[in-house]
């Protein structure tokens, strides 16, 4: 499978990305967030590629709606895409979100003090590691 052949399940998993340096106050699951990806690594078979969200046809900005338990964004055709949040945990240090869609599982951790995002999306053929930053909306 070509690394660029991604489903939104991957994008949603990547969803919790963040706006660089935007978060200066603690973040929580009380208010919605906007996130932007800063770096993506995609691995298939024995090779990995690094780039930005656009390199992998992923949304640059993702929105996290905690009330609706949904991560959503817009794809390259301006179509609304979304993925449900199946699990949400709040620890002293991070917000942990998990979900699955299109035969892929995803987990994202958002640092509660800085808004820094780290995420992974795993499937049978392609795996992603995504970095970014989030801020409350």
> What is the radius of gyration computed over CA atoms, rounded to a whole number of angstroms?
14 Å
Strand content: over 45%
Taking pLDDT < 50 over at least 5 consecutive residues as the criterion, the unreliable ranges are 1-24
Structural class: mainly beta
* Helix and strand run: HEEEEEEEEEE
**Sheet having the most strands:** 10 strands, antiparallel
Arithmetic mean pLDDT:
81
Tell me the number of helical segments per DSSP (H or I, 4 or more residues long).
1
Number of strands: 10
Distance between the termini: 37 Å
What is the molecular shape?
A: globular
Which percent bin holds the helix content? under 10%
Structure overview:
Helices cover 4% and strands 51% of the residues. The protein is mainly β and 137 residues long. Strands 1, 2, 3, 4, 5, 6, 7, 8, 9 and 10 form a 10-stranded antiparallel sheet that branches. It is globular, with a radius of gyration of 14 Å.
